[in-house]
Structures are given as structure tokens and as C-alpha cells.
Amino acid sequence: MRMKDIRMLFMALGLFIFALCLILFPKDVLEASKSGVAMWSDSVFPSLLPFFITAELLIAFGVVSFLGVLLEPLMRPLFNVPGCGGFVWAMGLSSGFPSGAKFTVKLRKQNKLTKEEAERLVSFTNSSSPLFICGAVAVGFFQDAAFGLLLAVCHYGANTLVGIFMRFYKKTSPPSSPTASSASLRTAFQALKKEQEDDVRPLGKKIGDAVTTSIHTLFMIGGFIILFSVLYRILKVTGAIHFIALLPASVLSVFQFSPELAFPWLSGFFEITVGSKLISDLTQPDMLEKGIIASFVLGFSGFSVQAQVASLLAETDIRFGPFFAARWMHGFLAALLTYVLWEPLYIRQIDQPVLSTEPAASFFVTSWQTIGTWLSIYGSYITIGALFLYLYIIHTKTFHS
């Protein structure tokens, strides 16, 4: 029997066992589904929708092409990607997963990126948002704003290092455009004008398409969040996750870390929110150990996020393999940076708090905390309103067609 046939057989068997567990544990499945829906409607949907719609419109009106010309002298030598990758990088940093993959796919479909450039770009433009790191993890879970600064610096610093390392991935492949030694405003405006001339859709059509495309993508993201919430609950209720946790426990023992971290670490492999919360709940391990594991979990992103990215990449010829390898690299680099920067960015902040004396740093943390609180109150209303808008646009399109 061929390896491909064996793999398909195991996949079919796994799906059968999963379906059987759905029948055997209906109460746990329902609770996990409701938890996933609540996370999606209260936080993920309202926080990502404005970024998605805005980015779609920026692409449609040629702003990304304009920025691409200006950023070419920076992005090409640093990451070996075109200047338009700078826009994707910025959107990934500000809005979080899986924005980088969504807009990389968009640019690849428009032939602004080669296959190799897209694989490089998607590897370092997907990261956790500042709202999640500083608001949910640091303040919400660990009750420690100073910890958020450390996690954010290590997370985004490691992600930048991943991009620099990935610039050597298939570096001999031909670029999508000639490398520009300097940026020209005239050339940038010409690129913007050409993009607008090529896109003949009226304004209302562009806005409607931006809304429907964004909401459609967020539906997909919500489906994966619910699916992996149910999968994690089944692994937990059947006790399988404790058996699987023996592997990370053996890895932790090599570094003389507390064995209590094994289960939260494994949970983080499936879903970063669950893993981060379980790490923060532990009392025995010291803060450095918890910080190292939490940084790895944030960098690796979890199989739930990776499945979302894989679904987006499947629309193109962009391979998932380089992205998956980059997630391991991101996790290890973030953990290493946490160990190296532990004293200057965390211990010294406790002894001489920076966040209480520096207004800019204090404003940064409290702002993300305020946004998180606001979303928890009004997020579901935004989601419901957006869904009604989506149905109205779809109805209008169907009526006119």
C-alpha cells in the first residue's frame, strides 16, 4: 500500500472517530461550540472587520500599488519581497491573524507577487495583534501590563527575524519586478493611477465587494475557531490530551522546566487563547518559565490559526510548508528572545516601572485594554449589524442580477 493511501486511510479513520465523539459527548460539543461562537462574535469579528474592509478598499483604489513603489527600496533588500509587501506586513502587525495570509493571497491573485515571494511574505506577516498580546494575554490573563511589553517586543522582534531569514528561501528565483534603488513619487502616482484605471468598478460596487469579501473570510475564520474549540474539548473530555502531553513533558524535562507546563503548552499548540490562559493559571512555575512558553505559543500560533491560513492559501499556488516551518522558527526565536530580554524588559520594569512614569508606554497598554473592554461589551452588536448589512448587499446583488 502506498504512503498516500495509508495517509488517506488514517484521515478517514480520524474523521470517523471525531464524528463518533460528536455523538457520544453532545453536551461538551455544544458548550465548546457556544464558546467558539462567543469568541468569534464578541472579539474576532468586530476587531478584524474594519481592517479587512479598509485593506480591500486600499487595494481597490491603488493605494497599495502607490505604497509598493515607495517601500520597494526597503522591503526588497530586507525581506526579498516587493514593496507592496510592506502594506501586508503592516496590516498583519496591526490586526493580527490571519490578515497577512488574506492580503498575500489577494496580491498573488493580482500577480503582484511571484509564488516564491508570496511564500516568503506570508511566513512573517502573520502575527498576534497588540490587542490580543497586551489586552487579552498580559492584562486579562496574567494581570501584568509590564509582561505585555516583553511579550510584544519578543513576538514582533522574532517575527521580523523570521522575515530576514526567509529572504534566503529560493533567493535565486526571478523577482516579480525589477529592484528599485530609490523611491520616486512620480512613479508611485503613476502606479496608483494605472491601478484605478484598470479597476472599472463603480464606487458602490467596490465598497459592496469589500464588505462581502471581508465578511465571507470572517465566516471561514469563525468556522475554524468553532471546529478547533470542539476538537480541543473532545481531546480533553476523552483524556487523550493528557496522553499526548507526555511528549512536551519530556521536552520540558530536558530544559529542567516545571512539568506543570506540559498540558498548557500542548493546549497552546491547538489554540493560543486556551494555552495562554492555562499558562497564566499556573502557580508553581516561575514567571520566566511561563513567559518563555507563552512566547512560544504566541509565535507558533496554534493549529486553529494555521488551518485558517492553509484554507486561504489553498485558493492559490502558495504552499503551506514554508509558512508552517516559519511558525516553528517564530516560536523558538520568540522563546529565545524572552530569555535574553527577561531582565532588561521585565525585571527592571518591576524594580523601576517604566509604564507608570512614561505616559506613552502607559497610554499604549491602557488603550489596548480599553479597546478589549469595549469589544467585550459591544462586539456582538457590531457582528449582528454587519451580518444584516451582508445579507442586504447579497439580496441587492441578487435582485439586480
Provide the fold topology:
Elements: H1 3-24, H2 26-60, H3 63-79, H4 85-95, H5 99-109, H6 115-124, H7 130-141, H8 145-166, H9 185-198, H10 203-238, H11 240-244, H12 246-254, H13 262-270, H14 272-281, H15 287-300, H16 302-313, H17 321-340, H18 342-351, H19 359-400
Helix pairs in contact: 2-10, 2-19, 3-9, 4-5, 5-6, 6-8, 6-17, 7-8, 7-19, 8-15, 8-17, 8-18, 10-16, 10-19, 12-13, 13-14, 14-15, 15-17
Mind explaining what this structure looks like?
It is built from 19 helices and no strands. By secondary structure, the chain is mainly α. It has one domain (25-400). 42% of the residues are buried. The model is unreliable at 354-360 (pLDDT under 50).
What's the overall average pLDDT, rounded? Answer: 84
- DSSP helix fraction: over 70%
Helix/sheet category? mainly alpha
Query: Unreliable segments (pLDDT under 50, ≥5 consecutive)?
Result: 354-360
The end-to-end distance, rounded to whole angstroms, is 51 Å
| Tally of separate domains | 1
Written as H for each helix and E for each strand, in order along the chain, the element string is HHHHHHHHHHHHHHHHHHH
Beta strands, count: 0
Largest sheet: none
Name the shape in a single word.
Answer: globular
Task: Kindly provide the radius of gyration, computed on alpha-carbon positions and rounded to a whole number of angstroms.
Answer: 22 Å
Please state roughly what percent of the residues sit in beta strands, choosing from under 5%, 5-15%, 15-25%, 25-35%, 35-45% or over 45%: under 5%
Alpha plus pi helix count: 19
